[in-house]
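User:
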Amino acid sequence: MFFRPLQYGVHLLANKPGMAHNPRMETTHNDDFLLDKFDVSLLRALQEDAMQTHQHLSEQVHLSPSQVSRRIQRLRDLGLVTKVVALLDSGMAGLGVRAMAHVALQQHSGAERVAFETTVAAMDEVLECFTVAGESDYVLHIVASDLQSLSKDVLQRLTQIRGVSSVRSSVVLETIKSTTSLPLHHLSRNKGSKRSARLG
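Assistant: Predicted structure:
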């Protein structure tokens, strides 16, 4: 097989500009939105390996398997756990080139933004796209099979999008740190039994 999943991960909800509003996440005062130390421990364990059995998780967080099951379902229902995925090795998948691209638009009209964001959303090579403050309007995280593909299939296509004034790219030489796990230590800094998490 050409590539293999190296790890299973769980994605947690983080605040993102433009994220669809979820009315279930409005308040942090309702007990439904309070995380205790068991929830935090469970989230840490799930971020490390979301394919662990409930029995294995129960041994780590000191709960029964049935309690683990109920808590995981609650975290999913709240929208805190957004999805469970297989994380692939990009090099083994033939995507050995990684780059960051800074894109600026000529104008910031609704039409130009829509044109750019719609096109980028359909590009498989773009893993992430962020709106940013500063000289650039967007920062893109890109993968490609080689430098030629990066230039021809991605960067040139970006420059041809309506309203794009400049594209500056930096090729990643070495990955020092790469993780999908969100830090959760701030949820454990309280002295009480539960900590309120802002969901949304």
